[in-house]
Design goal:
UDP-N-acetylmuramoyl-L-alanine:D-glutamate ligase, six-stranded parallel sheet, 20 strands
């Protein structure tokens, strides 16, 4: 009997409590019930908003719904939703009572029978994870892409074979309690983010460290050498090390040279790969994402497969995604940009000043670094949401700010923001939604925000 079979055999008759019925758990609760576990679901949503309530109860699953949902953490094992703070008092109390508190992704890393490549960072996780998976598929490998990118992998763990490769995007929320690291760990960069969910920046950075802390000698850690925080991690890494850089040549890793070509260095020498201009998706930050991906898959995919993906891959939805051309103005959806650093990268992807729609839920991260970039790269700023005045105030405080060359418009919601942008956009302009904020003031997630933006633009 294999490890996966032993696990599912072991949960028969055990009480398993799932907190939240989101992407990570919606399929898993049914699977655990079918395996003989006594499943309970605790969710803040009322019954009227939980469309599957009757179906779940018909499967023998007990529901605890509404504001008091955390008063029912009765399971032998508790699986927390990734978006819940690790130090929530109810979870801390459960651990002190001797209950097991884990997560879907932690269990997957424990049980996965194949090599795992884990990708984390403040920005670029999804694109890098997708590029890694595309390169491996182009090389003929069977790949399972999931994690924070929106697909739970534990429900398919019984279908995964040892020769496959799992590519997992990992958020700080998922990593904070990790006790096992992926075989290959990639850290794209680190900047202030999610400080509404972490005690402080130290906790946020420490959570990221778990992506490599538990590797063995045969593992590999890939870090961004141009980011001071991630570069400092290499001194702690005890397995194989690789760095990627747009500025210097690492001892091992992918890098960009002054001739505009991408190279890969390792113990056997330096290999010239392809021109950075062949990367189809725009932006210097996407060159960095490719350098990270190449460093991760080196030895698992041929250079020809990497080059083909660079030429063919059109990008991930909500990441500087072209929406449509309206009267000569191009509209882009960069809803993934939920932090200032991500919006800065999005603005740098264009070689002209743009009309920027920004603002949203406040994650309590500083906006000061965004101010100079908006003054440099934005011709009209449209702000909305909880952070609207924070962003506007940051821009106005810049010494170079001129209200005649950079008007700031306020919108009450996305619909008004799109209408204002349409009014000021002229032929040759670029309009981009790049919020520098999370979505939770108006939307369930950044995907819902991006889809609504596209619906509004396509209806113009």
């Amino acid at each position: 009997m294999g490890r996966v079979e032993r696990f599912f055999e072991g949960i028969k008759g055990k009480r398993i409590t799932f907190i939240g019925l989101g992407v990570s758990h919606c399929k898993l609760v049914t699977i655990f019930a079918e395996k003989g576990a006594l499943v309970e679901v605790c969710d803040r949503q009322p019954r009227t908003q939980l469309g599957d309530a009757d179906t779940l109860e018909a499967q023998g699953i007990t529901l605890h719904l509404g504001e008091d949902y955390l008063k029912h953490l009765n399971g032998d094992v508790i699986l927390r939703t990734p978006g819940m703070r690790f130090h929530t008092p109810e979870l801390t109390a459960a651990r002190e009572r001797g209950q097991v508190v884990t997560s879907e992704l932690e269990l997957f890393l424990d049980l996965c029978p194949c090599k795992v490549i884990g990708i984390t960072g403040s920005d670029g996780k999804s694109t890098t994870a997708t590029v890694v998976s595309e390169m491996l598929r182009a090389a003929g490998r069977t790949v399972h892409l999931g994690g924070n990118i929106g697909r739970a992998l534990l429900p398919i763990v019984e279908e995964i074979h040892p020769a496959d490769i799992a590519v997992v995007e990992l958020s700080s929320f998922q990593l904070i309690s990790m006790r096992r690291s992926p075989d290959i760990a990639v850290i794209t960069n680190i900047a202030p983010n999610h400080l509404d969910m972490h005690r402080d920046m130290t906790e946020y950075v420490d959570a990221k460290r778990n992506v490599y802390r538990h590797q063995n000698a045969f593992g590999k850690t890939v870090v961004n050498m141009d980011n001071a925080i991630t570069a400092s991690f290499l001194q702690e890494v005890i397995c194989r090390k690789a760095g990627f850089s747009r500025r210097t040549q690492p001892g091992c890793g992918a890098f960009l040279k002054e001739d505009g070509w991408i190279y890969m260095a390792d113990y056997s020498g330096v290999t010239r790969l392809f021109p950075a201009l062949d990367i189809r998706i725009p932006g210097v930050h996407n060159i960095e994402n490719y350098l990270a991906a190449i460093s991760a898959v080196w030895g698992l995919a041929e250079p020809e497969a990497m080059h083909q993906v660079a030429k063919d891959f059109a990008g991930v939805e909500h990441r500087i995604e072209f929406v449509r051309n309206i009267n000569g103005a191009r509209w882009y959806n960069d809803s993934i940009a939920s932090s200032p650093t991500r919006t800065i990268a999005g603005l740098d992807a264009f070689d002209q000043r743009v009309i920027l729609i920004a603002g949203g839920y406040d994650k309590q991260i500083p906006y000061l670094p965004l101010g100079p970039k908006i003054v440099e790269k934005v011709k009209t700023l449209i702000v909305m949401g909880d952070t609207a005045e924070k962003i506007a105030a940051t821009v106005v405080s810049m010494g170079q700010y001129n209200p005649r060359t950079l008007p700031i418009l306020r919108a009450k919601d996305m619909a008004e923001a799109v209408q204002l942008a349409a009014q000021v956009a002229a032929e040759g302009d670029i309009v981009t939604l790049s919020p520098a904020s999370a979505s939770f003031d108006f939307y369930r997630n950044f995907e819902a925000r991006g889809r609504h933006f596209k619906e509004l633009v396509n209806a113009l």
